[in-house]
Design a protein that fits this description.
Layout (H helix, E strand, L loop, with lengths): L1 H12 L15 H4 L3 H5 L14 H23 L35 H12 L35 E14 L2 E13 L4 E9 L2 H14 L2 E2 L12 E5 L2 E7 L6 E2 L3 H9 L4 E5 L5 H13 L4 H8 L3 H4 L2
Parallel strand pairs: 7-8
Antiparallel strand pairs: 1-2, 2-3, 3-4, 5-6, 6-8
Helix pairs in contact: 7-8
Length: about 325
Amino acid sequence: MATATTAMSLATAYPTTPVATATLSSLPVSLRLRPQSLLSSASRRLLLPVPKASSWDESAPEEEGEAEAGAEEEDEDEKPRPEPVASSQFQFAAPPEGYVEPAAFDQLPPESPEDVAAAYESLYGPAFSGETVLGNNVYEVKVVDPIDMDREQRPNDDFSERVVQVNRVTKVVKGGRQLSYRAIVVVGDMKGHVGVGVGKAKEVSEAITKAAMNGRRNLVTVPLTKYSTFPHRADADFGAARVMLRPACPGSGVIAGGAVRVVLEMAGVENALGKQLRSKNPLNNARATIKATQMMKQFKDVAEERGLPMEELWK
């Protein structure tokens, strides 16, 4: 202990005098484990253990007290929160008189097809009663590929079919050429509804069936007057084809050729003039005719748009 005191006094009295290494063995273990640079440096003093009653230890409780006071002030500024209501205090409304709790779904008796049909009919109307416009039985739904359909199995509707063109087309592949047929069919009911369809298949009959189904999916409504003619003239382009349509007086008939005549006849037009002005391609001319009919408007529709009565429209 005396040796340690002598070393400390020497380091304090003579800071420039280096401490002898022989005296380090007699120092406490806590001082010997410190880095040698701190003990042998001439510009630094020995690091002594700091007593517990120091200035920074005394200031710590003050800082903690200030932090607690700030937290209390923040709690006072916050709005009071409502106390949570325990689930045991909540009470459900009493059921009405005569209420009978329904049974679970797995405990109900099995429903018959008549019950299911009655439920659908009550929700969506009498369309599910088994009677349809097309004459099909909704209780016997059969998914049949259109290719496998014969003419007797096709939908029993009022639409007629007319073949405009059947071409043999070729697809060149790695192994050679694949031959198939493309059919253009016009479908209509002679009452203002007409559609143009295209179908391809290995056989002619299959191509025609596909084209007819495609035409039924692309039906449009043609505006007609009481004389079965157009309300006004119209011109339309499709690709390189251009078609001109003009109304005609009663008794004129359909004066047109090619695909334009087929489309007008299937739509129910009896008096009209049609002309193919550019390309003679049947498919483009048929679609141009459909496009021209969709550009026409009835007189009542124009009067409603302008906000005028029908009498004022002719003045």
